[in-house]
Design goal:
2 copies of one chain form a homodimer. Chain A has 245 residues and is an alpha/beta fold. Helices cover 35% and strands 10% of the residues of chain A. Chain A has a 5-stranded parallel beta sheet, with helices on both faces.
Chain lengths: 245, 245
Amino acid sequence: MTGSTRAVVLLSGGLDSATTLALARARGRTVVAVTFAYGQRHDLELRCARAQARAQGVARHHVIDLFTFGSIVAPATSLLRASPHSVPREDPTGGIPNTYVPARNTLFLAYGLAVAEAASATEIWIGANAVDYSGYPDCRPDFLEAFERVANLGTKAGRAAPDGRGIRIEAPLLTQTKAQIVALGLELGVDFAQTFSCYDPVGDDPPVACGVCPSCRIRLAGFARARHPDPLPYASRPGNTSNTS
Amino acid sequence: MTGSTRAVVLLSGGLDSATTLALARARGRTVVAVTFAYGQRHDLELRCARAQARAQGVARHHVIDLFTFGSIVAPATSLLRASPHSVPREDPTGGIPNTYVPARNTLFLAYGLAVAEAASATEIWIGANAVDYSGYPDCRPDFLEAFERVANLGTKAGRAAPDGRGIRIEAPLLTQTKAQIVALGLELGVDFAQTFSCYDPVGDDPPVACGVCPSCRIRLAGFARARHPDPLPYASRPGNTSNTS
């Protein structure tokens, strides 16, 4: 790796993390990407994460197996349950969505921190967004600030920094709307055909985004507002996508 | 599980975590124990963790596979390197020991938090100790307090609690000496023959504690000061164990 600032980027294969990675690269970071496999119902996200890592020239890409985690928390989240169509088809209402996965971002950031310290990286970039899914407790600014404190108190690298910020949590999309994220990604050259956001894909060979789960609706509305076509195929599309977020 | 307070206990198979578990049980907690397998050089600790979980009547025991984590952080810690005898044979000097594993307790607590939330447990007990290994950044009170804040901001259960402490991190041994921990464990009936603390065991069938690594020295000195024989066999013992901590 070069002498530039090293950053760990949490890369899910979704639109937000692909854009976050592009931003880290545009700002000159040498990137170690980290992707988690935890029993999502399909491996499309994983394939997209690999494609993004390759296309965006990361220095390393770790795929971390969290299947035990997935099996332990599955009863507590609709995202990981075996039965299809248990994902809500309505838009989030402002409460904590039932797609919430217990302690997910805490665990992802903890892994990111371990990888960062082992690779002498000083930043952890995460595509957390507090606008579209304001209900997730672990996507809010106060949580991310608290985790940065943990990162600096709990590591050798953090304790060694005189200003107490040897490790920084970077969440550049935190207050962006989906339309702004789409526009930013396009500007940075992200290939959105190689991203996947659907909670409940249809079919198997290959699966196609459903077009109606909350994640698809928010994505489609974001592209509509950014006045750009979403390159992904969809099984169906809501009648008026611009009305749904 | 019963209506008593539910607690996750991080159980390594060492002396401290076995005593922590005994304390949680003595205080009436219904316990979900969590043990991590991350490429330690031997599985004796794991066998001890299982024995403790069984003997102490935990409601559930999850063993979580962290081998990917182990392989990623191995170059950064002597504890996980393949070559034998790379573990320091001297006592800790007050700096951060080279047995430090990047972000270990952050990751362990993050898993504990996920398990806790999925099991509706409100406490996470950890045998962290700031006396014997004062060099570890992730065994200090300020780190544990910061993690409790993360736990409460980053989870549904934590956000729901009116006092901001829906999840508590309990580290009852934090300021105890090893002799005090030994005495407490004996009082609570912990079978210390089923604990293992050595960094660098000797032989294979079965491996025996070396008696000279920092962890063995501190343990032996603790038993000596508690005026109780350590039931473990050792390959060798320092001339004067009471002088080493």
